[in-house]
Amino acid sequence: MILYSQDAEADRAFVKDVLGFAHVDAGHGWLIFKLPPAEVAVHPTDGAPKHEFYLMCDDLDAVCAQLAERGAELTGEVTEERWGRLTAVRLPSGSELPLYQPLHPVAHSLD
Q: Where do the VOC domain residues begin and end (predicted)?
C-alpha cells in the first residue's frame, strides 16, 4: 500500500510518532512501515471501481483516546454501522485515514 501525500515528510512523521508504527528507512528518509494484520474484501459496485483503506482495531474508543493524547485530530464522531464502527484521523497533509472496529467475524488471524 502506498499513500500519496501533499506533505509526505509530515505524514511519515505522523505514522511513525503518533500512530507508532515500526519502520525501516529504505534510504534518504523513505520510511517503510510495518502494518498491523490486514484483510481484504471484494464488494460489488454499479459505479466506478474504487479502493478504500481502513486501519482496523479491536477497541475504537481506546484507540481514539490514545491518538487524541498524542495530538491527533479525529475528523468526526464515531459512526455505528451494522458491520462496524467508523471514524477517521486527519494526517498533517490534510487527508483522512479511516479507522474501523469491525463488528463481524474477522479473517486476519486465520492460519
A: 1-102
CATH numbers and ranges of domains, the chain? 8-102 (3.10.180.10)
Count helices and strands in the chain by DSSP H and E runs: 2, 7
pLDDT digits (tens, 9 = 90+) for 45-81: 999 998 888 999 999 999 999 999 999 999 999 999 9
> Which tops the pLDDT comparison, 14 or 52?
14
Q: Where are the beta strands (DSSP E) in the chain?
A: 23-25, 31-33, 55-56, 73-74, 79-80, 84-90, 96-102
Cα(111)–Cα(92) distance, integer angstroms: 36
End-to-end CA distance of the chain: 22
